[in-house]
Automatic annotation (TrEMBL):
Its main location: periplasm. GO terms for biological process: alkanesulfonate transmembrane transport. The keyword Signal applies. GO terms for cellular component: periplasmic space. Keywords: Signal. The keyword Metal-binding does not apply. This is PhnD/SsuA/transferrin family substrate-binding protein. Belongs to the bacterial solute-binding protein SsuA/TauA family.
Amino acid sequence: MIAPAITRRSFALAAGAAVAVVAVPALRAQARIEKPRLSLAVGGKAAFYYLPLTISEQLGYFRAEGLEVEISDFSGGARALQALVGGSADIVSGAYEHTINMQAKNQFIEAIVLQGRAPQIAMGVSTKTMSGYTSLADLRGKKIGVTAPGSSTNMVSNLVLSRAGIKANEVSYVGVGTAAGALAALRSGQIDAMSNIDPVMTMLEQKGDVKIISDTRTLKGTQEVFGGLMPAACLYTHVEFVQKYPNTCQALANAIVHGLKWLQTAGPSDIIKTVPDSYLLGDRALYLASFNKVREAICLDGLLPEEGARTALKALASFEPTVKVDKINLARTYTNEFARRAKDKFKA
């Protein structure tokens, strides 16, 4: 019996169906989230430094990517890093320079998406305990508040002081957090100066409690302090995690870049409606003033610039003896692979 002739159209349909049968499972496998439940550590979540994280959480962008993210908030970035190293966190929302510091200790962690393109850290002296301040030399022997010892606020303070010949062991660092406790520590005279992030610093500045002596809340100020671009908050994790859970890392990057895209056009009222009331520290107007001051420091597309990585390494090496420029492989401190795909997806 002769089989019926196969027309060109029926052959094409059959071939298409066969391809679909093969392709659909492949696509599903590619999109499968290997680790849908994650623990994320952050140090001072209410700060603008981590605003993209909060936006992505509050607007449901992590859930939209198939992730269930449990966020633990610590007093500072150094504590969040400890959570990752200790195994109680999968991911950290923290300062990029931690990836360099850890590599200097032969531990490899990698940034997968950038949230801030400037550190947004200001350093100021107390108008109460240092009313006669004239130069950085006056800070020798003083108490300086930072979010937490070893955090990026500590790093910026070290950098600023080193340029005046003051070593880290010639001052006393006090961890004060990033919220009401930081305000109270400065106003009560417990500390003489502070290196911190917004909204805390703008609130102290506008109330006349501090005199700002170094400011990286703008791109111009960052250029003046660091001599170039300086990447700030990012999501980072162990290199092994990135290799084992690439789809999970892609989903995380997608959620953050989605938040960055939203922030590009968000107005003050949008921000107020989205962040928790506790973030406002009791003063809505000052919170919005703080946001306007740091807005340009928020990353646009999640990509970490190569020039910024070099700036961070140079800055750390200038005051941190364990960090040697010729010993650090910057290519192993970050990847733009996930952010690039997320940028294409959301047209960021």
